[in-house]
Amino acid sequence: MSTLTEWAYPLAESLLAEPLPRRWKHCLGVAERARTIALILDQDADLLEAAAVLHDIGYAPDLAKTGFHPLDGARYLRDVADADEQVVNLVAHHSCSWLEADARGLRAELDGEFPRESEHLNDALCYCDMNTTPDGTPTNPVDRINEITGRYGPDSLIGRFIRRAEPEILACTCRVLERVAAAKRQPM
């Protein structure tokens, strides 16, 4: 039986590796973070890893239609790639994207087309993304938020969005780390 990750990795690579090699490295790093928290995901581990490697495909030049990568990526996954609905929804809502959608005037489209998945899955994907550098190496969410703000500028749409999202990003990270700690305390 084919897994979601066996399908997702080649798709993400075909869309990102050549035109956006740094973005591809980031996605690989985010997928690696997903594997490190598999113990709290049970049967959803494969689902989260697939969403992790695909989460930024909306940046691919051939997919970028609105300029809002979560929406562009999710639409491609739904309309072209016939992806698993949960993967599509996770990509659409990754890393507090609804707050950026607000800033872009796209919130109604995002929420109207893609329902949010469970909090634990959204938290897990946010954790993985915000604990990975643009080059795919581990980091922490404070440094990641500072890096994003520095790259785009504090007064840019992205700079303002990421600062607005910071409390929720930090809360997601805390919830995931609490689940990991609790899982590690459980006897086997």
UniProtKB/TrEMBL annotation:
Domain HD/PDEase intervals: 19-180
InterPro entries in alphabetical order: HD/PDEase_dom (IPR003607), HD_domain (IPR006674), HDIG_dom (IPR006675)
Organism: Streptomyces griseomycini
A matching Pfam family: HD
Classification via CDD domains: HDc
Gene3D superfamilies: Hypothetical protein af1432 (1.10.3210.10)
SMART domains on file: HDc
The name this protein goes by in its record: Nucleotidyltransferase with HDIG domain
Highest rank taxon of the organism: Bacteria
